[in-house]
Amino acid sequence: MLYIVPTPIGNLQDITLRALEVLKTCDAVLCEDTRRTQILLSHFAISKPTFRYNENDDFSIRRCTEVLESGKTCALVSDCGTPCISDPGWRLVKAAVEKGIKVSSLPGPSAVACALAGAGITGGAFTFLGFLPRKPGRAAKLLSGAYGVGNPVVVYESPYRVIKMLGLIAKTLGEDTPVILARELSKVYEEWLRGTAAGLAADLGKKHKVQGEFVMIIDRPHKEEKNEDADF
Question: What integer is the mean pLDDT of 11-34?
Answer without folding.
Answer: 97
